[in-house]
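Weekly structure sync, notes
Attendees: PL (lead), two postdocs, one rotation student
Agenda item 3: pending single-chain targets
PL asked that the sequence for the first pending target be pasted directly into the notes so everyone works from the same version. It is reproduced below exactly as submitted, 296 residues in total.
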Amino acid sequence: MNTDHPFYRHFEKVYGSRWAGLFAALQTREQQVARVNAWSPSDKSTKSWSQFPEKSELPGCHWLTPAHGCQPERNSDELLDIYIMDPASVMVARALDVQPGDRLLDMCAAPGGKSLVMIESFGDEGEIFCNDLSPERRERLKKVIQQYVPREVRNRVWVTGKDGVQFGLKEPGSFDRVLLDAPCSGERHILENQAAQDEWSPRRTEHLAARQYSLLAAAFLAVKAGGRIVYSTCSISPAENDDVVRKLLKKKKSAVKLLEAPLGVGGERTELGVAYMPDQCGFGPLYFAVIEKVEE
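Predicted structure, written out during the meeting:
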């Protein structure tokens, strides 16, 4: 992509002198972690991932450099031992502060890494609805749950294929925690795809922001009073991040409260949330904000 491309010029205006470095970082392979499956820790002492240090701010996660990957393996229980994911995604799922017995909704759940973090936290009585509108992504989600979650726990994991807006309309006040990892521009992926670059325009971000707000408003309706929503994207666009959250705060006023999002190593605070940007931390991009529905 040359510097005259509308995509480049648009984000140069947004990020100013930072953009050249961020643009370069978006085109490098991101750093990841091997998150140990709580139900299937490795029974092999020489696993390649175990050679990497456990990240102190992310217990159970081992740092993998871009040059040194590894593959999950099945243990005697037939479950896979690790899940490879962006470390910021682990932080997003943990920001929900899931409690034992919670009824959870992962509104746009595929491929399922964040759902796994949530499932490990809901105890012996909790349940989760892992939703994704796309049939193809939903099949991948089902496979991940089967590969990582024991059968007795899977009985409390429901995979659904609704438009996320329906949860707000048909199940108001039903969930203790809602994760909305919203469909977004995914600029890292745009830079990997020439067709996506050719089709990109600022209007795409505007359309996505409208869809993101409709889903966030539905999450607000679906969560119980006193419950928590985490809104996240893998976009670098403020229009899809802080601006969407700001719109909810403006429209819902005293019925919603912005909580301070936990700031992990490498994160940076935005006006309303936290962002992990690859030019600063080597992974991401990922943005999230934490919202509480106020008790009536």
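Discussion points:
- The CA atoms of residues 166 and 249 lie 21 Å apart.
- The first strand starts at residue 32 and ends at 36.
Action: rotation student to compare against the earlier draft before next sync.
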